[in-house]
Design goal:
mainly beta; 3 strands; rod-shaped; 0% helix
């Protein structure tokens, strides 16, 4: 006879979800809108727009997606 009653104690898998800490951040140039992915807390500049007006365009992190 097969016992169908499954009253087993729950195995402790309630905390299997990792916290939502993004490991990648999208950065976008404000001039040419190019977008790159990288680690958080990077300081990036755009090579295409660099030096056009003697400025150094930094890529700002965007929080879409
Ligand atoms: Zn650019």
């Amino acid at each position: 006879m097969a016992a169908l009653a499954a009253n087993l104690p729950a195995a402790g898998d309630a905390e299997s979800k990792p916290p939502r800490t993004p490991s990648k951040v999208a950065y976008q140039c404000e001039e040419c809108r190019v977008k790159v992915w990288g680690k958080p807390d990077l300081s990036l500049i755009c090579g295409d727009c660099h030096g056009i007006d003697g400025q150094i365009p930094h890529l700002a992190p965007v929080s879409s997606y």
